[in-house]
Amino acid sequence: MTKKIFKSTVLVATTVLICGIALVMAILYQYFGKEMNMELKKEASYLAYGVEFQGTEYLQKIKNSDARITYIDKDGTVLYDNQADASQMENHSNREEFQEAQESGSGFSDRISDTLSERTVYYALRLSDDSVLRVASTQSSILALTLQLLPPFLGIMIIMIIFAGLISSKSARRLVEPINDLNLDQPEQNDGYEEIGPLLSRIYKQKCQISAQLENARRNQEEFTIITENMQEGLLVIDAYTMILSGNSSVWKMFQMKEPKTGESVYSLDRNEDFRKVIEHALAGQHGSALLKLDSEFVQMIANPVFRETKVVGAVLLLVNETEKIERENLRREFSANVSHELKTPLTSISGFAEIIQDGFVKDEDIKKFAGRIYKEAQRLIRLVEDTIKVSQLDEGVNPYEWEQVDLYGVVKDVCNNLKGIAEKKNVHLFIDGKPLVFRTVRPILEEVIYNLCDNGIKYNHEDGTVSIHFQDMGDKVQLAVKDNGIGIPREDSNRVFERFYRVDKSHSKEIGGTGLGLSIVKHGVTFLGGTLNMISELGKGTEITMVFPKEKNRES
Fold it and tell me: CA neighbours within 13 Å on the CB side: how many for 548?
């Protein structure tokens, strides 16, 4: 039995050793082949980057390169070769790697020399101008490699066979059975040699540690993914070569990318100079930030370098959408400027008229006339202040009134009665189209909305014009429309008429009167009541503004 085990052990050891040597040699050959391919690919990429910016001058500067570098024009003409005279070289358009690079952007090929027992690997990369940069390197054939390593491998094999024979002769019976019975899935439960007890204990501990580490890594990855994917801010991680390592969905939306750009240069997202400078500063080890204009949005980008020991290995980019903040700030400035201007105009008039009266430059019979002008400007100032307060309250959600069940027909009728005198003076006809309709709303705000729309329809109308108020029940909603056949609004102004103090025709508006806040009050009022607003207007034909309100808006303040 011992002899059989000895013979079997020696035979197996020899077979395994031979197969192992062959396998190792094959693996080494493949590994070094793959490493060479990767190195060729990397070197070609770096060289291509330099050629893109400096042309063949960049290649001529490179002296210490083990690889053969060939620069080929798009028609196959060799422009540069670091190991041969380019002018004496034949056209390369028929080379496999050149054709593949022209078609797909890159190409590999290899050629084996029977005489030299060498394998030459070529990697070609297409540049932006359709020229091709080729890098080549040689590798000994597997036969040559085998012949080189055969003597040491034979020596090792002989020694190992002798060693295996000695071990097998002494320990065959004692080793075979316990080893065969080992359970590596449950190392702690094995009963075997004391010599392998510590090994089994370490295997068990390492197995527990690996399981715990894998579970912890999985949890951390899930947490990171959940956090980043639910961030409104954009997050980008790049390496030291500006390649994108990861990014969340928000950042792709900001740059209007349909799919992630992982593995590409971060400069492919945006070519803005500020964008580039911030990234360069971050990769140089400095914190940086910039305000970017992406399409119609403003994005604040913050870049921080990532260090490994003292070396910068990448950067983390945080992008925050600041569009709303900037627009709000612009509106605040515009509003302040408009309020100042609108308040100054009547105050200047009042001050001027009062000064004339004070200095005695007005005849006694004209004092009443000037006092009337002062009163008119004062009333205009009061209306301006009141409308400004209304807009501010609606904008802030302040509601000094109660929510209640209101009959829309009654509200519209009251508004028309209040505007009847103004309409008759302008010879404009008011029409109501609707039946009693009760829904929950804030009556004073609803009255203000309807009043401003009808008032505008009267003011900006023609002689013998019409203003129609239509409303209807839409189930859980109420639709209200105010339509006139007046002067209309130009298309270029239709998106701005709801802004505070915005007037389409400033001169005409001044003659008519008003504060410039009517439609702004309408917009904020409709929003406050939970409704939506839509406007259709055509210059010279009139305007129709349609509003839709919920029947049961439950909003208490």
Answer: 7
Could you give the 3-state DSSP secondary structure of residue 542?
A: strand
215-244 tens-digit pLDDT:
888 888 788 778 777 777 888 899 999 899
For the sheet with 68-72, list strands across it.
78-81, 68-72, 132-140, 118-126, 106-113
Homologous superfamily of 2-145: PAS domain (3.30.450.20)
The DSSP symbol for 317 reads E
Arithmetic mean of pLDDT, 469-482: 93
CA distance 452 to 207: 77
User: Quick check: 408 and 447 in contact, CB under 8 A?
Assistant: no
Angle at 305 between CA 299 and CA 309, to 5 degrees: 165
Neighbours of 491 (CB within 10 A): 10
Neighbours of 315 (CB within 10 A): 27
430, exposed or middle or buried, with CB in 10 Å at 0-12, 13-18, 19+? buried
Are 231-318 and 322-394 equal in CATH topology? no
d(CA 289, CA 94): 50
Q: For residue 63, what are its two tokens? A: 């002296």
Q: What angle do CA 107, 109, 110 make, to 5 degrees?
A: 160
Residue holding tokens 């060498």? Answer: 118
Superfamily of domain 231-318: PAS domain (3.30.450.20)
Task: For the domain made up of 322-394, give the CATH fold.
Answer: Helix Hairpins (1.10.287)
